[in-house]
Amino acid sequence: MKKTDKYRTIRSVSSGFYREKGSRFISVASPLNNSDEIKPLIDSVKKEHHEARHNCYAWVTGISGENWRAYDDGEPSGTAGRPILGQIRSFGLTNVLIIVSRYFGGTLLGTGGLINAYRSAARSALENAEITVHVLRDRYELVFPYQSMNDVMRIIKEEDLKQSEHLFGMECRMTVSVNISAAERVLSRFTRVEDLKYRYIDTD
Predict the structure, then answer these.
(1) Are residues 199 and 105 in the same domain?
(2) What distance in Å separates the CA atoms of residue 164 and residue 193, rounded to the nearest whole number?
(3) Which of 30, 32, 118, 131 gives 95 a disulfide partner, CB atoms 3.0 to 4.6 angstroms apart?
(4) Is 122 found in the same domain as 72?
């Protein structure tokens, strides 16, 4: 199966607002670098909106959006977290957390009204966000003799690889970044270079 090396997310924190029959729905969308950020972000919003009746949220993580959660925080099941999650999916995003804080206005909205309100508040935050496409790259350290330099540089040029951390001498060292979808092909080419060795560093 071909690897996915791109995903859509938001560049920075954005906010939104929706009002329905006196109830105010204040939304915050945050980009996520890792799952460890989720709880602190939720706790921060709950502290800021401690007088809100509900702080409902949904998040999606993973390159293909395979990890997710939707939370209703006391609202009728399926009326808050799921509509928020639906907007993240609708925008084709991942690595995003949206929290919607509801200040009750005194009038019950009913199931349909709640679904629309939470959906609209989440959409408002995403409409105010800057969408960005993140390209995932594997980084490798190459070690090779100086006489193989031309072969290495030819592959780097033909594959349009990003390079950094050069150290040239009788033994050369170089770090290259490879789109993960192309990594298998590129590494296969490097293995055919005389006396070249490579080491995986990380994925960015």
Answers:
(1) no
(2) 19
(3) 32
(4) yes
Longest C-alpha distance within the chain, in Å? 78
State residue 33 phi and psi, 5-degree precision: -90, -30
Where do we find the tokens 């330099």? 149
**Average pLDDT of 133-155?**
95
Asked whether residue 1 is domain-assigned, the answer is no
Q: Cα–Cα distance between 202 and 185 in angstroms, integer?
A: 18
Residues 169 and 71 in one domain: no
Query: What whole-number distance in Å separates Cα of residue 136 and Cα of residue 4?
Result: 8
The answer to whether position 161 is within a domain reads yes
Which of 199, 178, 175 is CA-nearest to residue 136? 178
Q: What is the bridge-based pairing of β-strands 14-20 and 6-10?
A: unpaired
84 and 119 co-located in one domain: yes
Q: What is the pTM of this model?
A: 0.81
Q: How many domains does the chain have?
A: 2
Q: Give, in order, the Cα–Cα distances in Å from 96 to each of 53, 63, 131.
A: 23, 11, 11
DSSP characters over 29-80: EEE-SSGGGHHHHHHHHHHHTTT-SEEEEEEEESTTS-EEEEE-TTSSTTSS
